[in-house]
Amino acid sequence: MMKMDTLPVCTRIRTAKHRWHFVVLGWLLLAYPAANAFGQLRLPRLVSSGMVLAHGQPVPVWGWAAAGQSVAVHWQQQVHTTVANAEGRWQLMLPASKAGGPFSMRIVAEKEIVLPEVWVGEVWLCSGQSNMEQAMNGRLKYRYANYVQQAQYPQIRQYLVPDVFRFDEPATDLPAGEWLPAQMPHIQEFTAVGYFFALERWQKTGRPIGIINASLGGSPAEAWIAEDSLRSFADKWKELQQVKDSQWVAGVQQREQAASAAWWQQLQASDIGAGWQQAPVDASWKLQTMPAMLHAANGWSLPGVLWMKKKFWLSQPPAAGTGVLELGRIVESDSVWINGRWLGHTTYQYPARRYELDAASLLRAGENEIAIRMVANGREGGMVPDKLYELRWADTLIDLKGDWWVKQSAAQSTPAPATTFWRWKPAGLYNGMMAPMANYGLTGVLWYQGESNAAQPANYARLMRTLIGNWRQQFQRPDLPFLYVQLPAFLAPADTVQERSNWAAMRQQQAMVLQVPHTAMAGIFDLGEWNDIHPENKLDVGKRLAALAVALLEKGDTAAGCGPLLQSWQYKRGAYRLQFRFAGSR
Predict the structure, then answer these.
(1) Which residue has the higher pLDDT, 10 or 403?
(2) SS3 410
(3) Whole-angstrom distance, CA of residue 170 vs CA of residue 154
(4) CB within 8 A of 229, min separation 6: which ones?
(5) Tens of pLDDT along 209-224?
(6) Separation CA 247–CA 250 (nearest Å)
């Protein structure tokens, strides 16, 4: 059997064009620094020019050099010295510094490293899943366009941690990353929640603010917890030991890839819709009111492929100018044409569909037609209701809600086979993304996660108590402030207990985490969107977390600022009487 320590490590890094690329790195790159092999002074990637150090507390600085080598750190007109151990690792603590900067730091051993730009202020670790990961660009670039264009805050800085997972052992350094300021073009890659929090803190305190963005969409809490801390969770522990078996993993991957390829090949082979973007609508097409979700109950056989067409008339051709086709959200993927000409496509359900177009070249006087090829992987597909569906340019707006012509071009008997998301497995993200930061000084943590654990909410509070304790031990801060976001409202209201009830149970589990000292919870129930697991209002989430930071750091109150919390309830004479703490004033 292949030993696990020879398995590759998977990481996801961004290019200058902001596209994700997956890279396979040998385990030696992350598990043991090259500095030890050559005996040369080296710093971890986090300790680099542009970084922000936490003010008002001693902060560690560490790195690698030749075994037994003396190392001197010149900082704030003082020199601090230590000696590299037998493995070539060294570490020392810098005394507490006042906020300000930029300063210079010089590290001297057999060679010299100078960091010309070092700030001192607040450092916040931003972690969780997609609602924390969601950046200022992408689907948010329209909502927050002014914030992006006007961002000129060199004292607000982000370090974007590459998405790395591994199961063999904790990494000692990150494969990439740098401290970048909140200004164009870097602001586009900032976590939106983290940025709005940082902006509030900077405006209130005037201190430099550093955010370390270590988040990954879809990740469950157990992926961020160290192996030893997972021992009390039998199912998570067993799952981790299983994914360490490289032959078992390879077998699962091979079977899943074969099943997925066969499913998609069958779908493609059975699809009779080639060229339908230009085919005329005839009696075989059915009128369907959209937006709506389509399934067997309203006459459609899914999973499969559906074509949707919408016609509209223009009295005259548009003048030159850029237009936008808004198609809300489509489940699962879509390809779009206007008047038979390709416009774009989206490969999965969560991104908002906003297709820019040249109105003058694509549109014409008389009849125009939008054609969409939609692929549904499961039993339901279609246009998600209560989203924006319109075509607009200059001063013209075409409402696209209403009747669409729909025709099926392919159907499958079973949904697309599931594939395993290995990067979400227990301890994988801790080993790859958290462990390398173990010595960095933090002001606190911002956490937005829970959606991926909502299917089984019963254990979540215990899981989070374990995570918080694990991280506090890692960063050697038993009182490390931990601010987190409670899940918002999601899914349509219902009168019966069903899937959405798990979200209510999850919110209760999250509220129970407040029993852990030095924690605070931002309630955002009112900021949710029933039809979108990624609500766009990230501004108010950041502001509420910033209000919690004031309450916790300046007033020492672990709950004030979180919004109303249910204290007691009573049922009497056919009515419930609820009493809340922190309800505020009318």
Answers:
(1) 403
(2) strand
(3) 32
(4) 466, 467, 469, 470
(5) 999 999 999 999 999 9
(6) 5
Residue with the bigger pLDDT between 231 and 321: it is 231
Phi, psi dihedral angles at 416 (to 5 degrees): -60, 135
What is the band of 473 on the pLDDT scale with cuts at 50, 70, 90? very high
Nearest-10 Cα torsion for 447, 448, 449, 451:
170
Residue 65 has what pLDDT?
A: 97
Mean pLDDT of the region 567-577: 87
Phi, psi of 495 (to 5 degrees): -95, -5
pLDDT band of residue 10 (cuts 50, 70, 90) is low
Residue 38, classed as helix, strand or coil, is helix
Whether the bond between 318 and the residue before it is cis, its omega within 30 degrees of 0, is no
- Proportion of the chain in helix, strand, coil states, percent, rounded to 5: 30, 35, 40
Q: Which helix (H) or strand (E) holds 316?
A: none
In the prediction, which pLDDT does 492 show? 83
Long-range Cβ contact pairs of 534-539 (< 8 A, separation 24 or more): 534/130, 534/131, 534/134, 534/139, 534/350, 535/131, 535/488, 536/139, 536/140, 536/143, 538/131, 538/134, 538/140, 538/144, 538/192, 538/193, 538/196, 539/144, 539/147, 539/192, 539/196
Dist. CA 565–CA 290, nearest whole Å? 39
CA atoms within 13 A on the CB side of 249: 20
Q: What is the distance of C-alpha 84 from the center of its chain?
A: 37
The span from the first CA to the last CA of the chain, in angstroms, equals 67
Given a contact cutoff of 8 angstroms between Cβ atoms, the answer to whether 352 and 329 are in contact is yes
pLDDT of 8 over the 70 cut = no
Task: Output the six-digit token pair for 274.
Answer: 């080639």
Contact indicator for 101, 120 with CB cutoff of 8 Å: yes
Contact 197/132 with Cβ under 8 angstroms?
no
Query: By C-alpha distance, which of 139, 149, 144, 134 is closest to 183?
Result: 149
3-state class of 82 per DSSP?
strand
State the Cα–Cα distance between residues 424 and 209, nearest whole angstrom. Answer: 29
How far, in Å, CA of 127 to CA of 194, rounded? 9
For residues 442 and 212, give the distance between their C-alpha atoms in angstroms, rounded to a whole number. Answer: 9
SS3 of residue 40 by DSSP:
coil
pLDDT at 558: 60
pLDDT digits (tens, 9 = 90+) for 368-378: 999 999 999 99
Residue 142 in this model has a pLDDT that exceeds 50 = yes
pLDDT bin (cut points 50, 70, 90) of residue 497 is low
Torsion of CA 475, 478, 481, 484, to 10 degrees: 80
pLDDT band at residue 36 under the 50/70/90 scheme: very low
